[in-house]
Every structure is written in C-alpha cells, then in structure tokens.
Design a protein that fits this description.
Elements: E1 2-3, E2 6-7, H1 8-29, H2 32-60, H3 65-82
Antiparallel strand pairs: 1-2
C-alpha cells in the first residue's frame, strides 16, 4: 500500500527511527517533556494502527502478520510511555 506514491513501510522506517532517537534523547536528558512527546506519538501511532486494521479487515479482507506485529509494537509504545 502506498500514500502519495510512497510505500507505507517507508513512513514506518522514518517514524521508528525518530522514535528511537527521541527515546534515547529522553533517556539521557531525563526530562518529562520527552515522555509527554512519546505519549502523544504513541497515541497517534495507536490510532493509526486501529484505522489501518479496520481498513485491512473491512476493505481488503485480509490481515498481514507483519502489520499485526507493528500494531502490537505501537500499542506497546503507547503503554510504555503511559507507564
């Protein structure tokens, strides 16, 4: 699947690289602002995961095992930031 002619996986790679850098920056800086940003990013990622799941299930009629794993990772990111 693509968005604006770019595969969704490419957006995912950029997203997770930015999350990793943000997580490392927050860990070393020990500032609450980083945790708040990660919570917001995790919430947005979880909402997008729900939307993509519904699209896969209802419109495409098939579920991708890799995609399901990514959805779990996004919910784990949200849960870890919440905790």
């Amino acid at each position: 699947s693509t968005l604006v002619g770019i595969p969704l996986g490419s957006y995912g790679i950029v997203f997770y690289v930015m999350v990793a850098f943000g997580g490392f920056a927050g860990f070393f800086a020990r500032r609450r602002a980083y945790a708040d940003v990660m919570l917001a990013v995790g919430a947005v990622a979880s909402i997008i995961s729900i939307v993509l799941f519904v699209i896969s299930k209802m419109l495409v009629g098939a579920l991708c095992l890799v995609c399901m794993g990514i959805y779990v990772v996004n919910f784990a990111l949200f849960g870890a930031a919440w905790w």
